[in-house]
Amino acid sequence: MGSGLCKKKPPPEPKEDPAPKHSLVLNLTRRGLKDVPAEAWSQSDLQKLNLSLNCLRSVSPQICVLKNLQVLNLWGNQVLSVSQNQLRSLPWTLSNLLNLRKLNLSNNQFSQLPTCVYSLRSLVFLDLGWNLLENLAENIQNLTELRILILEGNHLNSLPKALCNLSSLELLNVDFNDIKDVPQEFHQLTGLRRLACHPLDSGLHILHNPLMKPTKEVLEGGLNALYSYLRTPA
Questions:
Q1: What is the spatial distance between Cα 208 and Cα 219, in angstroms, rounded to a whole number?
Q2: Residues contacting residue 141 through CB under 8 Å, at least 6 positions apart
Q3: How many angstroms separate the most distant Cα atoms in the chain?
Q4: Which of 41, 77, 89, 178 is most buried as measured by Cβ atoms within 10 A of its Cβ?
């Protein structure tokens, strides 16, 4: 399974998900915003909030008033020529958004995942791609409903064993990190059906890492070969 099959490409701008029927949607993408406007906090029934491609440095704790929010998109909050204007933190009150199902934090400047995210137990989609993450806390196992977890393009050199408890995962993308091995318990992720290459494919995206364990020869056999390798006692 050569590296020529899967060449690194710039991350595409995420496509807008269709709004749920009868939902309230506020689209504030590409407005050059440095702060979230007050109008957002006045819409308590809001279900979808798109703040992508702005210049946000932070998000107000007032976000906790959006109790019905299901989708929050904070993708790519940056001024391209001034990197320090990228989003680096989230308010702890975000943990009050118990109905939140989709959270996009990709293309920002997070060096660690804000603690509040680990409390969002209804999440089924979490995109943390293209940040500065160096590790994940064991608390990642709290997000038991996750079906899609995107961690590509960070600085991860290992994955926590707790990640292996997320049995609902159907897509796990850890490409373009610095991962050298995977936990022995990784074979417990039975919702992953294959080693994937195309960014939109379900399955495990891991080939673009300097893996030493398992070896390239093991990975050439696909996901079943990887899982068999991990089940074999050392």
A1: 12
A2: 162, 163, 165, 166
A3: 58
A4: 77
Is residue 9 within 8 A of residue 175, CB to CB? The reply is no
The residue count of the chain comes to 234
Q: Each residue of 84-108: pLDDT tens digit?
A: 336 788 889 999 999 999 999 998 8
What is residue 82's three-state secondary structure?
A: strand
At 3 the pLDDT is: 44
Kindly state the tokens that stand for 160: 């926590």
Distance CA 131, CA 144 (A): 23
- At 211 the pLDDT is 95
Distance CA 83, CA 220 (A): 38
What lies within 8 Å, CB to CB, of 93 at 6+ separation is 61, 62, 63, 64, 116
Low-confidence residues of the chain: pLDDT under 50: 1-5, 7, 16, 18-22, 79-85
CB contact at 8 A, 164 and 183: yes
Find the angle CA(92)-CA(176)-CA(192) to the nearest 5 degrees: 80
What distance, in Å, lies between the first and last C-alpha atoms of the chain? 24
